[in-house]
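Fig. S4 source data, part A: sequence.
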Amino acid sequence: FHFPDVAQLELSDVLNKNCGNTPYGEDRDRPLEGRLQESPWLVLFYFPEEQVNFCHGTLITTKHVLTTAVCASNIVPDETFISLGEYDTEKDQDCEQIKCSDPVQRRIPSKVIRHEQFDPETFENDLAMVVLDQDALLSDSVKPICLPLIKFEIGNVNLPNVYNALWTSKSRPQQYWMRYVELGRCRELVQNRIALAEGQICASSYRNETIEMIGGAGSALEVEYHNRIYQVAMLSIGILDAEPGTPFVYVDIPKYVKWIHDTVKNN
C-alpha cells in the first residue's frame, strides 16, 4: 500500500496543503475514545437552536468541507451552523493535562454544491461540497485532512489499520477500527437492501462490535501513511438495527478526486 509522497502533496494546487498532521501520527493502534486534537479535520453540522449534530464532514481546505449529498439536502445556506475544532461537545474549551485546545470555531455555509449525478434512491454519487462563509483558522485543533490524489483500488491493496472517527451519543469522538468488505459479500450481508454501485465501498467493524452511526454520515474512513492521515472513504449509509458486523456503505474517495478538485477550484 504505497502513496508517493511528493505526488500526493503536490499533484493538486488546491488540495493537500498543510494536511493530515496530528500529534499521534505514528500511533497505528488508536484508542476507542479519540484524544485531544487527534481528528482536527472533523466537522459537525447543526440545525439552528439544536444541541445535537445531524451530520459530519471533513475540512479539506481552509474554505471547503466535504460531506454527503444526503447531508447537504438538510444544510441551509446562511442558517445551518458548522462547528470546527470540537473535541468534547459538553465543554467550551478542552484540556488534557497541560495541553488545551483552541476555542471552537463557528461558521455558516455560504454555498452548497451537491454532486450533479447524485441518485437519492441508490445513494450513488453521495457527496457534496460546502463552502464556508469565512476561512477556517488553522491550528492544532483545526486543519484539513489529506486526500489520496492518486487513484487506487481499495479492495486490491493490503490496507493498514483503518478507522472511522465520529461523534456518537458520547461527547467525545469514538474511533472504530474497520476492515474492507468485498462488494459481493457486502450485498449478501446487507441482504440486498442497498443496490451497491461503482463509487461505493463497504467496511465493517474489525471487532464485530455494534457501532452507533446515527448522525455519522459524512465522517471519514481514515488511514495513516508516513505520519499523515488520509481520507480514503466517507460514511454514506448504515443499516438501522443491524446485527454487529453488518457493513456500512462508504463513498470511495479516490474515484471522486477529480470532482472534488474541480469543485474546490471553481468555488
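Fig. S4 source data, part B ends here. The first helix runs from residue 5 to 10.
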